[in-house]
Design brief:
Low-confidence stretches: 296-300
Largest sheet: none
Helix content: over 70%
Structural class: mainly alpha
Strand content: under 5%
Order of helices and strands: HHHHHHHHHHHHHHHH
Shape: flat
Mean pLDDT: 77
Length: 300
């Protein structure tokens, strides 16, 4: 049976498609603009002549970044904290979310409400730094991992999602003698992949883009600086960066060295290198992200 559509329906469809195409273009164009400026001729980029398509395509800006001191180490530190922090945060949030769904948990409501209170009240930046210092988490890689293990918002999302799973599955496993840990690993964890993937994306983006903890906690450990803080330093001191890149590069003519002094392309290139990993990961996690976000919001 073919459904007949009125002129208003066709107008709505055309408007809908046009709106989302425009919206997609607005979202994608900044990344596209960054990319085409990083692979174009630096002289043309400096003059602002690269707007919609690249000119004089080359990848020397990316190769030149290899000569920047500390960038490789910062990338490895950020990658390590993202992988370790995301895995541990997802596991801890998942298990805590499972525990607060158990009616027999000791003072469950009190613990749950106390966790929620921490979302709205905190002591401030100075007490936080003092606490981290007393715990020995300054100038320590674990300062990136331990504070982010527990996220109250993620626990709430997991709790809400688990409550949408039929309780009979857990009850039948308990009757067969399964422990809480077995129930979580064998039943809850596999069924909660959508919401766990969702909070994993949140955790990964948060760790990858984190800047403040590196700036405050790692002042005495330059080898533990993250990529985002290096990016901040490069953007604010791009002239010095360009000079260091130029002097570190050998075998170039004066004209080629002058091109490397283009601070704008350095800023674009470093920003692109920082954004690429997240842009590559997100498409593979999108289906879990959307499903988990919607199903986790069914109950209140």
């Amino acid at each position: 049976m073919v459904e007949k559509r009125s002129a208003g329906d066709y107008f709505f469809l055309m408007f809908n498609y046009a709106f989302f195409i425009l919206f997609t273009f607005i979202c994608v164009f900044p990344f596209y603009y960054l990319f085409i400026n990083t692979i174009s001729d630096n002289g043309l980029v400096a003059k602002g002549l690269i707007n919609f398509y690249p000119k004089g395509i080359n990848f020397k800006n990316y190769f030149a970044l290899r000569n920047v001191n500390g960038l490789g180490t910062a990338f490895l530190v950020t990658l390590a904290r993202t992988l370790i922090g995301t895995a541990l945060s997802t596991a801890v949030s998942g298990f805590c979310g499972f525990l607060v769904t158990k009616q027999e948990m000791w003072h469950r409501k009190l613990c749950y409400r106390f966790m929620i209170v921490t979302m709205y009240f905190n002591a401030g930046l100075i007490p936080w730094f003092t606490t981290m210092q007393m715990l020995g988490l300054t100038n320590n890689f674990m300062g990136y991992i331990i504070p982010g293990l527990v996220s109250v918002y993620n626990i709430i999302m997991v709790k809400t999602y688990i409550e949408s799973i039929p309780a009979e599955l857990q009850e039948s496993a308990a009757i067969d003698g399964a422990s809480y840990w077995t129930i979580f690993i064998k039943i809850i964890w596999p069924l909660s992949k959508p919401i766990l993937a969702t909070i994993a994306i949140w955790a990964a983006v948060g760790h990858w883009n984190s800047f403040q903890d590196s700036l405050i906690l790692m002042s005495g450990a330059p080898h533990l600086k993250t990529l985002q803080e290096r990016l901040y330093i490069y953007l604010t001191q791009s002239s010095n960066l360009a000079a260091s890149m130029s002097t570190a590069t050998t075998g170039l003519s004066d004209a080629q060295r002058q091109e490397l002094l283009n601070t704008k392309t350095i800023q674009y290139t470093v920003a692109m290198v920082t954004a690429i990993p997240i842009l590559c990961v997100y498409p593979f996690m999108q289906k879990y992200f959307v499903k988990g976000l919607m199903l986790g919001a069914v109950k209140g």
